[in-house]
Design goal:
heterodimer; A: alpha/beta; Rossmann fold; 7-stranded mixed β-sheet; B: 80 residues; mainly beta; 6-stranded antiparallel β-sheet; 6 strands
Amino acid sequence: MATPVPPPPRDPITFALVGNPNCGKTTVFNCLTGMRQKVGNYPGVTVEKKTGQFFSLHGEPMQLTDLPGAYSLTPRSPDEAITRDVLLGRRSDTPRPDRVVCVIDASNLERNLFLVTQVLDLGLPTIVVLNMTDLAREKGLVIDSEALALELGVPVIPCQAHQKIGITELRQAMGRQTLSPPDRKWRLPEGLESAVLRIQACLINEHKVDPSASFASALNLLSESPEKRSSSCPKCNSFLNTADTLLKEEERSSHEAIVGARYDFAQAVCERIIQRSRPEDALDLSDRLDAVFTHPVWGWVAFFSAMGLMFFSIFTLATYPMEWVDQMFGLLSSWVSATLPKGDLTDLLTDGVIAGVGGVLVFLPQILILFFFIGMLEDTGYMARAAFIMDRVMSRVGLHGKSFIPLLSSYACAIPGIMATRTIENPKDRLVTILVAPLMSCSARLPVYALLIAALFPSETVPALAKAGIMMGLYAIGTMGAFGFAALFRKTIMRGESSLFMMELPPYRLPSLRAVIIQMFNRSKLFVRRAGTVILGLSILLWFLTAYPKSGSESASVQLETSYAGRAGKLIEPLIKPLGFDWKIGIGLIGSFAAREVFVSTMSIVYNVEDDQDTVVPLRQNMLKEKWPDGRMVYTPLTCVSLLLFYVIALQCVSTIAVVRRETNSWKWPLFQLGYLTATAYLVSWAVFQSGHALGY
Amino acid sequence: MSATQKLSELKIGAEARIHGFAPEFREAGRLREMGLLPGTKVQLVRWAPLGDPLEIKIRGYHLSLRKHEADSIEVLVPTA
C-alpha cells in the first residue's frame, strides 16, 4: 500500500503519549516537559488530563498530551475510552494529535507490542520509545532496537527514562520535519485478511473513509456483532459475511482472531529481536523480592512496617512544618490586625480569610508526606503487592484490593483518598470506595477528638494509655463502619457482578525521586486549589454569619448569640437536643462544615469570649463549667461520647462534597453520601445518648 | 498426552497452556487482550497469603487474578 505524504504539521506539533500502565510513560512525560505541566480534567469525565510544552533540539515548540495508560484500545474503563477517543480525534476538547509517541516496557515486550499494533493501525506518524532497557538487561534480555524499528516500520528510541538516558535522542526524533505514517506489518490469517482488505477498499472507495485509518475502521466493523453493524452497504456486508463464515468454521470470535493475530505477530517479532542471556524461567530480583513481600509471615511484617512508617511520618514528622504554617498565619494575622484600623474589613481578613486559608494549609505537610509515600509505593512497584495481599480482606466487603490505598489515604484526608480511587477500573468498585472513604477518620478530626477526650476526664491530664485506647477505638469504629457500609452498598444499590480483578504485578525498581516529587507537587496543587477555594469561600461566609447582624454589644459572646450563626444554632437545638447537644455545640457543628477542626476554634470563640477577663482559661475547663438552663452539666461523659460518635460518622466537610461531585460528575452521589452519613451519625448518637440516659449516665 | 483442568487447580510452580474460557465467563475479552490466548504458556506462581487472589506468569510478566476468575480459565496440562 502506498503511503500518502502527510501535510506539513501545524505549529506547534502536537504529540500524544500512549502506553501500557506501568511502562514508565509518566516518567518519559516528566523528562520531556519538566515542571512545565498543566494538570486538569477532561470535561465530563473524571480522568486527569496532563499536557506539557517543550522544545525540539532546534528550538521549535512542541506540545505533548499524556494519555491515560491503556492495555488495549478497545476501552474497558473510562480512562481507556479517553485514550482511544483522543487518538481517533473524537473528543471536541482535545484535537487529534499530529503524531504519537508510544512508550513500551522492554522487559515486557510481547504484551506491550500488542498495544503497539493497535496504535500503528490508527495511521498517525508514530515513534516507539523502548523504555526500561536496563530492567530488560537485568532480566537477561538483549533487545536489538534497530531490528525492532525494521519490524515495526517506525523509529524506535531505546531509553531509560528514570536515568534520563535516551531523552535527547527522543527529542531529536520528535522534532524531525517529516515522519511517515506507518505501514501495517501484522497480518490476519489468510482468508480473513483478504476479506478485511476488501472491506477496507470498499470503505475508502465508496464511503470516503480516510485511508490512513481505514484498516482500523474495517476491523471495527468486523468486531461488532452482526446485529449491531452500522454498515448498510451491500458490498461491505457480503465481505463481512464471508469473514463471519470463516470464523464460524474455526469456531472463533472475530475478537479472538484479531487479538490472536496481533499476539502472533508480537511473539514472532520478540523471537527475532530478543536474545536471552539466561533461561526464561531463571528467577530474577523481582521474583526473589516477591518471595519475601508476599510471604505469609514476612509479607505482613513488611506491609505493616511500610504502613506504620507512613503513618508515623504523617502524624509525627508533619507536626513540625504544621506548627510553622500555623505560626506563620498567626503572625500574619496579628500583623494585619496591628497595621489596619479596627473594623469589619480587618476582622474579615484575620478571622475569615487568613484563618480560613490557614486552616487548610496547615494540613499541607501531611498531604505532601502522604502523596510522597503513595508515589514511592507506586514507583517501586510495591503498591500492587499491597493490593495483592490485601485483596482477600477487601473482597469480603465487596471492595477491590486497589480500594485499600485510597481508604488508607483517607486516614490523612478524604480528598486525596477519593482522588486516588482513579486507579480502580470498575466504576462500581470505585463509587463504593468513594462513598465510604469519609468514614475513615481523617486528620482534621484529630483536634476534635483530642478536645472531647480531654473533656471526658475530670482530671487535668488525660492518662496517655486511655487517650490512645479511645483514639484507636474511634478509628476502629470508623473503619468498621466503612467496611460495613461497603458490604451493604454492594448488596443493595451497587449490586451486580463483582468486577474482574485483574492486576499486573510489575517488576520492582528503584524509584525516581524526581518523578515522585513532581507527582507529589502536582497532586498537592490540586488539593490546595480545590479545597482552598471552597474553604476560603466558606470561611468568609462563616465569618459573616458570626459577625452579622451587629448586636451593638461589646461582649463577643452576646454578639455570637445574636448573630445568624447563633440563631441557626438555636434553631437546630430542638433537633440536636435528643443527642445531648445544646445550641453552642450546634454552632460548632455548623462551623465544622468548613473543616472539622473548626469546631475547636468555634468552641474557643463560644467559650473563651464569655470570660470577660483577659486571662484565657483553658477551653476544656470552660466547657466543663457549661450548664443547661436547669443546671445540669452540658458536657457529661455521655454527651462527649455522643458527640465523638457524631464526628466519627458525619460528613461535615464541604471540600469532600466538592471533590466527590467532581469525581462522580454529578450531585447525586455527594448528596446521597451526605444524607446517609448524616442520618447514620444522628441515629447512632441518638441511640447512644438516649440509652445511656435511660441507664442513668 | 494432556488433560484439561481449571487454572485454579494448578499446583504452585506448575506450567500449563491456556485452553479456553468457560462459556459464561464475561471477562474473556479483556484477558485475551492481556495475552491469555489458546496455546499460551502459563505458570501458577503463588497464592496470596490469605488464599486469594493468585499470581500467574504469562508472556514474561506477572498477573494477579482472583480464584473466581481462575476457575473460569481452562488449561491443558501435560500428563506423564
